[in-house]
From TrEMBL:
Transmembrane domains' residue ranges: 12-31, 100-124, 133-156, 181-208, 220-243, 300-317, 326-346, 352-369, 381-401, 413-432, 444-462, 725-744
Organism expressing this protein natively: Pseudobutyrivibrio xylanivorans DSM 14809
InterPro entries xrefs: Uncharacterised_YfhO (IPR018580)
Keywords: Membrane, Transmembrane, Transmembrane helix
Protein known as: Membrane protein YfhO
Keyword Membrane: yes
Length: 750
């Protein structure tokens, strides 16, 4: 095939155009950073370090391994599946060294925008007569408000890229009664990200009901069973990823719960206004919002470049079909938590399903352009501008009244600029449609220019909101490349994900929503709970020492023991050490959970340095015989933390090593001894003494084992719970899928 003919293909044009827009938008930051690309907040604090950490964890412990880099330690599958473990773009990054990721991430981001164009084009062209409109629609989808605002969450774009394939699969299934591609796309999306997949399944059901549901009950029931069968098979093929994560999620107290029918019919006034703003106006950065709230880290973004909602309103006015009904349903659902949160099983949806809504909006927009209706477009323009005007008036009234004690207009210039852009775009759209012959080239050029402008502004504002400057971030990145801890028996007392994950050392990383459930149990000992951030380990006396936080970084000379020095472009940095308990040490007493909780929070870490905590149900007669029970009043709080550290260091295990498969050590106690390991427990752990399995006792989310007197080899091995079952189910699923393909081909050949 000639190159010119290949380039003329609609999906190739979508790829090239979307790549070029993203490239022009991101290239200034790439050049400014001399190839090193950073943005702000979660992109810097999670996306970059998590990708590097996942890369190193896979090389260290494999797919079923244990990551010591995520908080106090978490299953690799459970820690990273929500992020990038299933993402094809992550696996592409594995072709490069792990620490090269900041230098290639911008180019991978460009590819994500480009492939979002490709997949949406392949879907949209099924509904237009001329494929050029599908190319235009692909730009609208790839650079919708949802895509641009969620640049902060790099891994969200995997869902944006691959979701349209599920709809294509369903369309082919209904059109040709061929479910092969449908099943594969279900597998693909389930494998890529289980969280977004749940929402996609809900949307798929809604899509089917509005688009295909038959009044013939027999046909409807048959279709339902066929679709369920396809879904079960697709999920089964991804079971090695899906089952471990479902086991993890069901045991996670952060998982949302249904809070009652009536209470979920309404939301707060600021939320109503923010949703309306996000529907009407160009998307803003999450870190800097012009009205309603200073910051908002939910995924509200819908604006179609140039057109806004004008063509969608025109489409609804002109046609009362399945697409109109889906768009109306999604709009209404956005304002009702009962419907909106349904997409993610009543975890806070935060409009993270709007990319699916955006695809429907893009489809309606291009269908309206291909078959324009001047009257409907004029009416849509009036309604859209009127809605914006009403919103602006309402915001000003709320601001003047200081309603609910809030300042409603925070950055007036930016707000009115967004309002002006939306209104101008609406008027331009109306002008375009009012002409007898729509110039596709002019429309397409204007959409691309607006898309580029919006993305440039968003990246610029995101970068100006960076809480840590480029040089400071790069300094820590350079330090982490060289950093090694002198002893594996201790952790790095540093909460920055980048340091621990890039250095691939155990630390106190505290910004993740997917750490082990037992870490949450441990944090509950201190009455701490947060959806995303882990408990600060230095806020409670003795806690960092209890958890082995022996090493820490300083960026200027200070008193203390220097372990290593690092030269950076800004200044020297120093790896320091202080007293801390080893990860594994002997205990001779226990305290019940109730007794521990009776103490003030600031005394509980010291209590745990004195005695291991046990729930009443876990205290056996053997434990009562072997260990002394400590009451809250028995603990000597006049004894210093340093003294406790010395005592526990004296009872340390020996020869401690750890990797992605588990940990090993040697003991040589004079009598039978219980050993406490400040490592999060889950059912994936197996402990052996000289090769013989021994029981693991859960101690406030951590682990405790009984070791006989004398010299012994202790080994903890880790395999993600549910993985073996998942592999068996996946094998059955793939065999069934291949068999289905063979049978289909034989029938087709007859």
């Amino acid at each position: 095939m000639k190159v010119k003919e290949w380039i003329k293909r609609d999906y190739v044009q979508s790829f090239l155009i979307c790549f070029m827009i993203a490239c022009l938008a991101l290239l200034p930051l790439v050049i400014k950073g001399k190839g090193f690309f950073v943005l702000t907040n979660d992109f810097n604090d999670q996306q970059i370090p998590f990708t590097i950490g996942l890369h190193k964890d896979l090389l260290d412990g494999g797919f079923s391994g244990f990551s010591w880099d995520v908080d106090l330690g978490t299953s690799t599958i459970q820690a990273y599946s929500f992020y990038e473990l299933g993402g094809p773009f992550f696996w592409l990054s594995m072709l490069f060294p792990a620490n090269a990721f900041p230098y290639i991430v911008a180019w991978l981001f460009m590819l994500k925008f480009a492939f979002a164009g490709v997949t949406s084009c392949l879907y949209l062209r099924r509904f237009v007569n001329e494929s050029k409109w599908a190319v235009l629609g692909s730009v609208l989808y790839a650079f919708s408000g949802f895509s641009i605002i969620n640049m902060l969450f790099y891994h969200f774009h995997d869902a944006i890229v691959f979701f349209p394939l599920m709809l294509i699969g369903l369309e082919i299934f209904k059109e040709k009664n061929d479910c092969r591609f449908f099943v594969f796309t279900i597998f693909l999306n389930c494998f890529i990200n289980y969280f977004f997949f749940i929402g996609e399944v809900v949307f798929l059901v809604i899509y089917y009901l509005f688009r295909f549901a038959s009044k013939d009950i027999k046909t409807l029931v048959t279709d339902i069973f066929k679709c369920i069968g396809c879904g079960v098979l697709g999920v089964a093929m991804a079971a090695f990823m899906f089952i471990p994560n479902i086991l993890f999620v069901t045991g996670n107290p952060r998982t949302g719960q249904f809070s009652g029918f009536l209470s979920m019919l309404k939301t707060t006034l600021p939320d109503y206004m923010y949703i309306l703003k996000s529907l009407l106006l160009p998307a803003e950065t999450m870190t800097s919002v012009s009205v309603i709230s200073e910051q908002n880290f939910s995924s509200h973004g819908m604006y179609m470049p140039l057109f806004g909602l004008v063509l969608v309103l025109a489409y609804i006015i002109k046609k009362r079909d399945w697409l109109s009904r889906i768009i109306i349903f999604c709009t209404v659902a956005s304002f009702i938590p009962l419907l909106s949160d349904l997409f993610y099983m009543y975890s806070a949806a935060q409009m993270r399903w709007w990319y699916m809504f955006s695809l429907m909006v893009a489809l309606a927009s291009v269908m309206m352009l291909e078959e324009p209706d001047v009257k409907a477009t004029k009416t849509g323009t009036i309604i859209y501008i009127a809605a914006i005007a009403v919103f602006v008036i309402a915001i000003n009234i709320l601001n003047v009244l200081n309603a609910q004690g809030n300042t409603w207009i925070l950055r007036g210039v930016r707000f009115y600029t967004l309002v002006a852009l939306a209104i101008i775009g609406a008027l331009v759209t109306n002008y375009i449609v009012s002409k007898q012959n729509i110039s596709y080239k002019n429309v397409f050029t204007n959409v691309c220019i607006v898309s580029l402008g919006l993305m440039l502004c968003t990246t610029y504002i995101y970068k100006t909101c960076d809480w840590m400057g480029y040089q400071a971030y790069k300094q820590k990145y350079d330090i982490a490349k060289e950093l090694e801890l002198p002893s594996q028996q201790y952790r790095l007392n540093n909460t920055m994900n980048l340091i621990s994950m890039e250095a691939h050392v155990a630390g106190f990383t505290n910004q993740t929503s997917t750490n082990a459930n037992s870490i949450i149990e441990f944090e509950d000992l201190f009455d701490y709970y947060h959806n995303v951030a882990g408990m600060p380990k230095n806020d409670i006396p003795g806690l960092a020492a209890l958890l082995g936080g022996k090493y820490y970084l300083m960026y200027e000379e200070s008193a203390g023991t220097v372990v290593d020095e690092y030269d950076t472009d800004l200044s020297k940095a120093y790896l320091m050490e202080t007293g801390a308990c080893p990860i594994g040490f002997a205990v001779d007493s226990y305290i019940t959970l109730d007794e521990l909780k009776s103490l003030p929070v600031n005394q509980r870490a010291i209590a745990l340095m004195d005695s291991a905590v046990l729930a009443e149900d876990d205290i056996t007669e053997e434990i009562k015989t072997d260990l002394v029970e400590t009451k809250a009043g028995d603990i000597n709080f006049e004894k210093s933390i340093d003294e406790y550290v010395v005592d526990n260091t004296y009872g340390s295990v020996l020869g401690f090593t750890k990797d992605g498969h588990g940990m090993k050590c040697v003991t040589g106690y004079d009598k039978d001894t219980y050993v406490y390991f400040s490592v999060p427990y889950d059912e994936g752990w197996t402990a052996t003494i000289d090769g013989i399995k021994t029981d693991i006792i859960k101690s406030g989310g951590m682990m405790l084992i009984k070791v006989p007197s004398g010299n012994h080899n202790i080994e903890f091995s880790y395999c993600t719970p549910g993985l073996k079952l998942g592999l068996i189910v996946a094998a059955i699923g793939w065999i069934s899928f291949i068999g289905m393909i063979i049978i289909f081909k034989k029938k087709k050949g007859q």
